[in-house]
Every structure is written in C-alpha cells, then in structure tokens.
Write a structure and sequence with these properties.
alpha/beta; D-Maltodextrin-Binding Protein, domain 2; globular
Length: 391
C-alpha cells in the first residue's frame, strides 16, 4: 500500500472522528438504556460519534417549526410523529430518504405513514404491536387448551374457558377512556374486512354501515351476546384479574410483556385469518439543516435497517419493522409476537388516525355495545354520522 493511500485513509478517519451526530428521541430511564447499545454499536462500526438527547414529541412540535424557519436544527436524526414528518417533508424541511433505504425490506405498510406519494421522508424504527389475545401458558396447560386455528376453534375455546369453575368470563374487557375496547374492535374489523378496510375507514372511503363493517361487527356481537367478554373494567385492574385466573384471555398491545410478573408464561395468538395488525412504530427523519447530511443518512439507514434493529430487539420490548431479522435475536416472549406479524400488513391505529370528534364517539359507542349488543344498528348509525368524509 502506498504512503498516499495510507495518508488518505488516515485523513478520512480523522474527518469521521471529528463528526458528532445528535439523535433526538423520547426515551428516558430503562428505555434509554435499551437504546444506548444500538448507538454504541453504530459508533464501533463506523467511527462516527453519536450523542443522544431527550425531547418529548409535544415539545418538539413547538420547537422544530421555529428552528426550521431559521434554517437550524437541534439534531441530525430526530424521532417524531409520522404526521409531523409528512407535513414538514412536503414543506421542504426534511431530506427525502427514498433512495437511502430499500423499502422492500420492511414490513408491508410500515413506511406508509411517512410517505407522500412515492417520496419517503422518514423511516420506521422498531415499535409496539397489538397482536391479539394474550393467555398464560400455565393456564392453558392446566386446562388442556390450545390456541385456535379457525373461527370455529376460537368459539369452541371460549366455550371451554367459560365452563371452567371460577372464571368470570373467557375474555377480559379492558376499559379506561375507551381505547382498549377500540383495539379489540379494530382487530375484528381487520380480520374480517381485511387490512384495506382499516385504511378505507381511516380515509373515509368506506361507510360504517357497509356490509364489510357490519359483517365484522356481527362476529363481535355474537361473542358479546354469548357473554364471552367480561364487563368493561379499568384496564390495569382487569389485567391483574386476568393474570390471577379470573379470565382466560386478554386483548392488549405488546407492552403487556413488561407489566406481568413472569413474561415467560405469556402466549399470544391473533384471530384466525388476520392479515394485518396495528403497529405503532417509532418514526425518525433527517432535517434538511443538518451539518452532516451524508453521515446522518448513514446513521438513519443503519438504525432502521436490520443491523440496528437486531441490536434493539435483543434488549426486549421492541418488534422490528425491518424484515430478515432472525427470530433468535428476540427474547422468548417478543419472539412469539414477531412470529405473528411475519407476512402481515402493519396498520395505523384507526381511532388515533381519525381523531377529532369521531374518537370519543367511537369509544362511547363501544362501551354501549359491550353492555347492549342488541343496539348494534344504533351504534353503527352514530359512527357513520361522526365518521370523516372522503379525504
């Protein structure tokens, strides 16, 4: 090797070592500790230093617009709401990432929230998923139960659980402001109407009194009429009751794994035939005003790609959006969730996406439906009245 090549390599290394990128994210405490190994591995592989700063998304929503007007940015890679990324991407304040990552190597649908037309303005990192019905493996083993593979098997499972002495109901109904009931309802809409129904309802392309919606609600109200769902109860309280054996199943997001005494006793299954799941990914972007655009693009590609995500999922509590990550990287309980979402479409949360006056109406009408399933037609009529018109 000539001395000029050696000198060039030394100079390149010196330049890289002089670069310090700033990542802005929402994680503190244990969540931050789980993110730091991802940063350290990137530094080890590239020689580029990275500093992590904590900002709440709500604070960034006020800070960043003013910074952008001044052509400044507090960070080089910033985690933020997908809606913000789309808005400010279109306004020219965010570097397009269309040619930075291979979109085919992500969970179908996971990048849709940060795309405008064919332009990609952000990436999907790992996230939390609402995969289906959780159960205690020890409970199933004790009573000789198996996860169902068909709708008929699901109904038969509920009947078996219902007849177990001491059971209040086969399925615990979490409640609060209304969102736990909305989560399980969305799962029925997605399963029996397909992923496209969820998206069409969000965009206002499908009426709530359509056959597709009514068909999904008919499946749900059938179970409600059979008393397979328990009475709506504050979701953290009923979580404890379910864990103690008062219920057999509980529909909840993957964050439940950090809320029980022994996560290795958790099992989970989706409704048979589900081709989509609600996936709450963490999204990130590169602001146009970074001093180090090439290094920042390298960092965001690594973070969102299989290498960075593999390091993150090993820490537990995260599910990857990048495909091709070996399941052995996941802790046991997260591995079960990762298996479920393989080959399905990642979808946005329905009522969170619609928002406005529809969201509280949706929650209130589901509370009514849970105690009076015979009011289904009235519920659907109200939802249609509150639903957004085609965008």
């Amino acid at each position: 090797m000539s001395r000029w090549i050696v000198l060039s390599l030394v100079l390149i290394s010196a330049v890289l070592s002089a670069v310090t990128l700033t990542i802005i994210g929402p994680w503190a405490g244990a969540e931050m500790e789980g993110f730091m190994p991802v940063i350290r591995e990137f530094e080890r592989q590239t020689g580029i230093k990275v500093e992590y700063k904590i900002y709440r998304a709500e604070d960034l929503a006020n800070l960043l617009p003013a910074q952008f007007v001044a052509r400044r940015t507090p960070g080089d890679v910033i985690f933020m709401w997908a809606s913000f990324i789309r808005e400010y991407g279109q306004k020219g304040h965010i570097i397009p990432l269309t040619n930075v990552i291979d979109q085919a190597k992500y969970l179908p649908g996971s990048l849709d929230a940060v795309m405008v037309g064919k332009e990609l303005y952000g990436v999907a990192y790992t996230g939390k998923v609402k995969p289906g019905f959780w159960y205690r493996k020890s409970f199933f083993e004790k009573h000789g139960l198996q996860p169902p593979k068909t709708w008929e098997e699901f109904v038969a499972l509920l009947e078996k659980i219902k007849n177990i002495p001491g059971i209040k109901a086969p399925i615990a109904s979490g409640d609060g402001v209304g969102w736990p009931l909305s989560d399980v309802t969305e799962h029925f809409l997605i399963t029996f109407g397909g992923p496209e129904l969820q998206l069409d309802l969000i965009e206002g392309n499908t009426r709530w009194d359509s056959y597709a919606v009514k068909n999904a609600f008919d499946k749900l109200t059938f179970l409600l009429n059979k008393k397979y769902f328990g009475e709506p109860t504050e979701w953290t309280l009923v979580l404890k009751q379910w864990w103690n054996g008062d219920y057999g199943l509980y529909f909840m997001g993957s964050w439940i794994t950090g809320m029980v005494d022994n996560s290795s006793d958790l099992g989970v299954f989706s409704l048979p035939g589900a081709r989509g799941v609600v996936f709450g990914a963490d999204y990130a972007f590169v602001p146009k005003y970074t001093q180090y655009p090439e290094e920042a693009k390298k960092l965001i590609a690594w973070l969102s790609g299989p290498q960075g995500q593999a390091v993150q999922v090993k820490q537990g509590g995260h599910i990857a959006t990048a495909v091709g990550i070996d399941l052995s990287n996941y802790p046991a309980v997260d591995r079960e969730v990762a298996k479920i979402i393989q080959g399905v479409t990642a979808l946005p949360d329905l009522d969170d996406s619609i928002g406005g006056e529809f969201q509280p109406a949706f929650w209130d009408q589901l509370k009514l439906l849970w105690v009076q399933p015979n009011r289904l037609n009235d519920v659907i009529e109200i939802l249609q009245q509150k639903a957004p018109k085609k965008r």
